[in-house]
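Design request, tokens follow.
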């Protein structure tokens, strides 16, 4: 009994101590906030007084007497000095500006120049927005100055010279690099970057449309990028099965984009040895077949995203393979695959319950039945795209729109570049020529009518 009383007294004592400590901490925190607000108010007051003293007396005589509303607007304007805001708020404002705008802001006055030199502001630099304006000399000097702060770089579409590309090498903190559409980059140029310390921390690398790159660059990536998670080699035409073999050696890789490349079933079989890939894009890869996709799915049980759009040679077999082996699938694009039918999609709906994004645009054999299956099996579906689905009725699409957050739908005929008509039959070159001729005649008629109207 005595021990119990001692425990109660001890707990009560601890409660009193903690209450006092909490009140003291709150008081100190409030006092600190009040001091900070007072400091900003004093700075604002000094700035306004200094501005009033500098205003020449002659300026007032040159203007007529202002109304009370005008005086109020002027006073409100004087209060808006963002240099007096906290650093976090200033950064939030400048993050909305392009690189060109930030440079212009730094030329306003000394206070604005100091704001544009905040280290956090240069964590991400987008040179793509000023690729036709800014010279290479400025790019090099900017990267040299902020080399310890740069985390993300965007050079999309920039025509980089070898000397400029070499300046990326010392960026030790760089984690994201976008070189998409940099058509001048070759194996030697990429090697200069990869030989530097920046390659060791790089996590995302976009090399889309860098058409000069070959297997040598992929080999270098496997040697120098141990932390690479995302890699895009879209439309890198010189990539072969040997290069795919080097990709397998990038053990940290979870996402790969090989769309528009010359990859074949052999390459997919090699890639299936990776075992850790969660995202694969092989859109517009015309050499792969059902067998290649099936072999990859068997070894990629953790696959979450697959894009095989515009591979018109693929059939129901790949959908069945996904339903059997890749039940964790969350995103699937089979747009432009005219051989996919309701029976395969029914199997997918019954197995892949975590599907969030589905693109079936151009799957002309699918009917209203697929929407019923999706409603039953894929209750987590959020985005559904079904453009050019000629056999799905408008009524069924309207019912489905209430089940998803975003939906795209029409029953138009597939465009000619899809390579097939509304029934899934291949479009011959003669059809394309006839179609082009008809469009040309229509254009001529329209232009003729327009000129006659003008003449009238």
């Amino acid at each position: 009994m005595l021990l119990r009383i001692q425990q109660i007294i001890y707990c009560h004592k601890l409660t009193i101590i903690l209450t006092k400590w909490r009140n003291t901490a709150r008081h100190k925190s409030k006092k600190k906030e009040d001091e900070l607000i007072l400091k900003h108010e004093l700075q604002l007051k000094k700035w306004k007084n200094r501005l009033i003293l500098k205003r020449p007396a002659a300026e007032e005589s040159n203007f007529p007497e202002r109304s009370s509303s005008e005086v109020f607007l002027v006073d409100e304007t004087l209060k808006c000095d963002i240099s007096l805001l906290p650093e976090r708020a200033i950064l939030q404002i400048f993050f909305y500006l392009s690189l060109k705008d930030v440079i212009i802001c730094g030329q306003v006055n000394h206070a604005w120049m100091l704001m544009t030199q905040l280290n956090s502001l240069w964590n991400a630099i987008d040179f793509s927005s000023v690729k036709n304006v800014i010279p290479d000399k400025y790019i090099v000097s900017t990267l040299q100055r902020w080399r310890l702060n740069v985390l993300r770089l965007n050079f999309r579409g920039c025509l980089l010279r070898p000397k400029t590309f070499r300046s990326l090498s010392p960026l030790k903190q760089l984690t994201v690099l976008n070189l998409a559409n940099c058509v001048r980059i070759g194996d030697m140029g990429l090697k200069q970057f990869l030989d530097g310390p920046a390659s060791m921390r790089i996590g995302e690398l976009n090399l889309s449309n860098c058409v000069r790159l070959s297997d040598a660059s992929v080999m270098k990536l496997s040697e120098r990028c141990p932390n690479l998670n995302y890699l895009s080699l879209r439309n890198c035409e010189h990539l072969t099965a040997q290069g795919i073999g080097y990709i397998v050696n990038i053990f940290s890789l979870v996402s790969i984009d090989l769309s528009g490349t010359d990859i074949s079933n052999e390459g997919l079989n090699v890639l299936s040895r990776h075992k850790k890939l969660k995202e694969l894009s092989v859109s517009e890869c015309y050499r792969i077949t059902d067998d290649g996709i099936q072999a990859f799915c068997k070894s990629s049980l953790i696959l979450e995203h697959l894009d095989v759009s515009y591979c018109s040679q693929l059939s129901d077999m790949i959908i069945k393979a996904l339903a059997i082996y890749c039940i964790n699938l969350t995103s699937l694009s089979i747009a432009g695959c005219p051989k996919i039918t309701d029976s395969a999609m029914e199997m997918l709906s019954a197995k892949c319950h975590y599907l969030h994004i589905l693109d079936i645009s151009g799957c002309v054999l699918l009917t209203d039945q697929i929407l019923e299956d999706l409603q039953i099996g894929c209750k987590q579906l959020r985005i559904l795209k079904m453009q050019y689905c000629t056999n799905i009725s408008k009524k069924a699409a309207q019912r489905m729109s209430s089940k998803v957050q975003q939906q795209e739908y029409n029953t138009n005929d597939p465009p000619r570049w899809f390579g097939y008509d509304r029934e899934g039959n291949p479009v011959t070159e003669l059809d394309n020529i006839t179609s082009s001729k008809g469009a040309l005649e229509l254009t001529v008629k329209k232009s003729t009518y327009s000129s006659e109207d003008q003449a009238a």
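Comment from the thread starter after seeing the answer: thanks! The radius of gyration is 31 Å.
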